[in-house]
Amino acid sequence: MFKSYQIKWFFILTGILTISTLLLRQETISEYPYWQFINYGFQLAGSIFICWLIIGYFFLHKVNSLTIYSKFVISVLLSIIASFVAGYLFFTFLPPNVLATRVVLYDNLSDLKLHFTGSFFLSLVCYVVFYSTHTNAALQETKLENEILGQAHLRAQLISLQQQISPHFLFNSLSTLKTIATDQPTKNYVVQLATVYRYVLNFNEEYLTPLIDEINFIRSYLYIMNERFEDGLKVDIQVQEEHLKLFVPALSLQLLIENATKHNAISLEQPLHISIRTDNTPALIVENNFQPKKIKPEGTGNGLKNITERYKLLVKRPIEIIKNEHIFSVTIPLLQK
């Protein structure tokens, strides 16, 4: 409310009108007690605040049956009436406003006309100031949104160009490498690497992928990882068949395995055991024995943060992380598309 109703500008307007009307007095005001200044400022601020809220309400709320001109007339008329009533209540229940240039009563038609005229000009000033600040804020917000959209568009164009250029070159190179390779292990490695790369290129962060596709991809990914870690990395996959048709965010399983291999020590003497299984909630659980590296790797937590944010954006459901001195476990919900 503070931002949408431009309350900052209400205080600025109140300060300007209070100080300027006091300075316009011809006689000295230093002889008056301080509470008279508080009384004067409170009455003026109260009238301005009522006008400000009424005008702001009509600016910020859409009324289908009213045109822009109708909203202007109704908001100004209501603020005039409200300011007039507030002035009468202040006059009736608060101490006399001796700082006013001339005390105007409510005894006759001439007095009422003066009060009405004052309320009219006060409402008009509030409308002009609110209109100016609201329009400027809307223009600034639109400009910022356009800049953000422009940057996103440029990033999308860059990614599109990269995906158009690099896949053909890489797949042709992998095909050539497979042809010239003389031993079967090298050929198998090239085939699995091509499978991994093809899957990564096809995935879209905005969509879900079937668990069966993610599992097939992760087998190719683990083939490459096992060439690197050999028997230092042991992965057990136990996924119930009825869960294979459910969905997870694409590459989420790869991020969890990468997180485990990145932050844990791996050796033949101290293997890293990773368990991939499902339960009947249904959920996918990735668990590993906790043996952290002595030197903390850079970018800690990026993979888990990525998965957490994607679940929050896609389905507004949390992931569960369990960490103790023996195990590290992440549970992600399996989803219906």
UniProtKB/TrEMBL annotation:
Q: Locate the transmembrane regions by residue number.
A: 7-25, 37-60, 72-94, 114-133
Domain Signal transduction histidine kinase internal region span(s) in chain numbering: 156-232
Name the InterPro entries on file: Bact_2-comp_sensor_kinase, Sig_transdc_His_kin_internal
List, alphabetically, the GO terms of the cellular component aspect: membrane
Q: Enumerate the UniProt keywords alphabetically.
A: Kinase, Membrane, Transferase, Transmembrane, Transmembrane helix
Q: One GO molecular function term? A: phosphorelay sensor kinase activity
Q: What is this protein called?
A: Histidine kinase
Q: What is the lineage of its organism?
A: Bacteria, Pseudomonadati, Bacteroidota, Sphingobacteriia, Sphingobacteriales
